[in-house]
Amino acid sequence: MLTIRDLHASVERRPILKGLNLTVNLGEVHAIMGPNGAGKSTLAAILTGRDGYEVTQGEILYEGRNLLDMSPEERSHAGIFLAFQYPVEIPGVSMVQFLRAALNAHRAAKGLEPLDTAELMALLREKAALLKLDASFLTRAVNEGFSGGERKRAEIFQMAVLNPKLVVMDETDSGLDIDALRIVADAVNTLRSPERSFIIITHYHRILQYIQPDVVHILMDGRIVRSGGADLALELEKSGYESLLNPA
Amino acid sequence: MGRSTPSPLRDRALSWMEAGDLSHLFTEQVLKEDWKYTPMDLLRQRWDYVPFEYGQPFGVAGDSLSDPRESLDERNPAIQSFPEPLSPWEALLAGAAHQRHFMLADGEPIGVALRNPGAFAAQLFTAIVPESAVGEVWFSLEGEGLSLVRWHLHVQRGGRLRFYYPSPRDSGESYRYLILTAYVEEDATIETYELHAATAWMRSEMRIQLGGQRASAHLHGATQVTEGAFADTAIRVEHRAPHTESNQLFKSLVEAGGRRAFQGRIFVSRAAQKTNAYQSHKALLTAPSAVSYSRPQLEIFADDVRCTHGVTTGFLQGDMLFYLQARGIPEEKARSMLHRAFLAEVVEKVPHAALRTWAEEYFTLPKV
Ligand SMILES: Nc1ncnc2c1ncn2[C@@H]1O[C@H](COP(=O)(O)OP(=O)(O)O)[C@@H](O)[C@H]1O
Ligand SMILES: [Mg+2]
B274 in a domain, yes or no? Predict the structure, then answer.
C-alpha cells in the first residue's frame, strides 16, 4: 500500500534523507529503529505533508496515488494517521470539538452526513475506554496540561477514533511508564488488522516486546541500512547501533 | 458633571456643536499620547448631529432586564461629583442635553440599547450601584455613523457592578467611541466585558479609579478587528488605596489590513500599598498586513506592590495548524477554529452562559 523509492529530502537546504526505500504492504507492522537525528521524524513529517521539508528526489506512492501531491488533510482522509512524537497543546479547543471537526471532515470527504452528537459521544466514550482514559478528558482542551503519558495515550485514542489504514507512530513509547506502555500496546494490538498497516518508529526495543513487528528496519543517516525480522530488534538491543553496523 | 465649576473646554465644545462644526474634536486632544495610534482621518467627514434611537435591549439578556427609564435626579451628590472632562469629546457630552442617570437596584440588571440612525450621536449615562448591592448593566450600540457614548459608573462601598458591552455585528460604516469611567469604593468591585467585532473604527477608553481599600476591577475584552478596520483601547487603572486589585485581560484577533492599538496604564499612588495589578494583551494576526501596537505603562509610587503585565503579538503557530490538518480538518476550517479558540480564553470568563454561547457564534462567523 505504501512504496517509498529513493527518497531524498532536505530541511533548510540540509540533506536529511539520503535515498530511503521502504515498502509496506496492507496489514503489516513495520518497526523503524535508529539513533537520534537519523531522520525518523523527518520521514514521518514527509509522509504527512508537513511544511518545511523539501523532497529533492524520489517518490512516494500510497494506494497507487502520488502522496506528495496531496495536502495534509487529504492524506488524513485517505487513511494516513501520524501519532506525533510531540503532540501540541490546543488551548480553547476541547477534544470533543476537535474530533467532531476531524470526523466530520473525514465523513464529508466520503460524502457522508455529519455524525449527530449522540453518535459522536458514544464513539468517543467507547474509544476512551479502550485507552483507559477518563471520560473527563473529552471536555478538556486538546493536550492542554496533559502529562507526557496522557498525550501519547490521547494520540492512540485519536487513532482509534479516526480508524486509519496506515498508522505512523513516532516514538509513542518514549517517556511512557510500563503501565502506560502496556495500555498503548494493547490498544495497538486490538486495532491491528489485515486492513491496517503500522510503521512504528522507536528508539528502543522495549515496545516491540509487546507489539510483534513483521519487519524491522534500521535507519541511520537518512537511509535504511538493514532490514530483518523481529529478531533484528533484539540483536540491536544487545549490541547497539555501532557494532551492529561495523562488526569487529 | 461639575456644573458648578466653569469649564472652558465644555464651553468651547458646546460652541462647536452649536456651530455644527465638529472638526475640532478631531484635532484638539488633551491626552494626546493616548491618541498616538488612533487614525482620525477615518472620522474626518461632515457629521450632522442627531440623537440616538433606543432599541430593544440586547437579546441574550432577555426579559431579565428591568426598564431603565427611572432616572436619578441630577442634583444627586454622586452625579455632582462627576469628574471634570478631560477631552473635548467628554466636554461635549458633559454639556450636551442627552444625559441619563440611573440608580441601580440590587439584583436588577438594566439594559440600554442605542441605535445610531447614521449620523453623529452622543449620549452620556451615569449608573450608581448603591452600598452592598449587585448591579448589572447591558449596553449595546448599533447602527452606522459616529457614536460617542460615555458611561460613568460609581460602585459604592461593598457593591459589585458587571458591565456588559457586546456589540452586534454591523455593516462596516460604524465609528464607535466609548468612554467608560468608574469610581470604585471600599470593598467594591467592577467587572467589564467587551465583546466586539470592529468593522470600521472603534475606540474604548476606560479610566477606573480604585478609591477605597480592597476595591477591585476586572476588565475583559475580546476584539475581532475585521479586514481594514481599526480598534483602539486606552485604559488607565488608578490604584489609590491599599489592598486594591486590578486585572486586565484582553485578546484581539486582527485580520488583513486591520490595526489594533492597546494602551494600558496602571497607576499606583503612594498610598496604595499591597496593590495587585495585572495586565495582559495578546494579539493574533491573521495576515502579514495586520498590525497590533501594545503599550503597557506602569506608574508606581508605592513600594509594596505586585504589578505584572504581558504582551504578545504573533501569528498562528504552524504546528497547531498542522496538527489539525493532519487529523483531516481542512486548512480554512482549522484556522477559524484556532482563531475562535484564541478568543475563547476571554469568552470563557464571561459569567453569563447565554452571552458566552452568543460570543462563540459571533466570533466564528465567516469573514464577509
Ligand atoms: N524542522 C526542522 N528544522 C531544522 N532541523 C530539523 C527539523 N527537523 C529535523 N531537523 C534535523 O534533521 C535531522 C533529523 O532529525 P529527525 O528527523 O527529527 O531525527 P530523529 O527523529 O531520527 O531523531 C536532525 O539533525 C534535526 O536537527
Ligand atoms: Mg524523532
Answer: yes
When pLDDT is averaged across residues B164-169 and rounded to a whole number, the result is: 88
E strands, B199-239, are: 201-210, 216-225, 230-239
Q: Say which DSSP state A47 is in.
A: H
* Whether A91 contacts chain B with CB within 8 A: yes
Strand ranges for B156-212 from DSSP E: 160-166, 174-184, 189-198, 201-210
pLDDT of residue B97: 61
**Are A60 and A67 spatial neighbours (Cβ–Cβ below 8 Å)?**
yes
pLDDT band at B12 (very low <50, low <70, confident <90, very high): confident
What gap in Å lies between CA A96 and CA A117, rounded to an integer? 10
Q: How many domains does chain B have?
A: 1
Residue B2 lies inside a defined structural domain of this protein? no
B331 contacts on A by Cβ (under 8 Å)? 71, 73
Rounded distance, CA A243 to CA B363, Å? 59
Contact B270, B302 (CB under 8 A): yes
Dump pLDDT digits (tens) for B239-286.
Answer: 999 999 999 999 999 999 999 999 999 999 999 999 999 999 999 999
Percentage above 90 pLDDT, chain A: 83
For ligand 1, atom 7, name the residue with the nearest CA.
A11
pTM: 0.87
Question: Cα–Cα distance between B96 and B99 in angstroms, integer?
Answer: 7
- Biggest distance spanned by C-alpha atoms of chain A: 63
* Domain range enclosing B338: 7-362
Segment (H or E) for A51: none
Residue B367: inside a domain, yes or no? no
Residue B297: inside a domain? yes
Give me the total of CB pairs closer than 8 Å, taking one residue from chain A and one from chain B. 74
Q: How many CB atoms within 10 Å of residue B295?
A: 16
Q: How far apart are alpha carbons B205 and B232 in whole angstroms?
A: 8
Compute how many other C-beta atoms are within 10 angstroms of the C-beta atom of residue B331.
Answer: 14
